[in-house]
Amino acid sequence: MGQTDPVRHRVPGRRGRVxxxxxxxxxxxxxxxxxxxxxxxxxxxxxxxxxxxxGYILAxxxxxxxxxxxxxxxxxxxxxxxxxxxxxGGRRATHNPPLWVTGCxxxxxxxxxxxxxxxx
Length: 120
What we know:
With about 120 residues, this protein is mainly α. The protein has helices at about 15-40, 45-65, 70-85, 90-95, 95-110.
């Protein structure tokens, strides 16, 4: 074999490249998921939105069902904080309790949600 003879190099086949790419993607996905769990633990990244909307929806439902207006006045006069203390806010309120109360007060007052729409 002389110096000018072509030399064939073996490269990994298509199956090997696809398998390598799939393993790399799986490792990156696992690393990303581990980072998110480490960073946010049990609280989702959008927990503030969840807390506000939870309070807002609860108060809106109470206000709409309130025929006499007494329950709405109670909510505006400290009832939202009392509901939170009694545990009526549920799991949504645990993400951000003060924001849950703010949403509850906005819903009781009949204000539009501060978190409506795609652009805030």
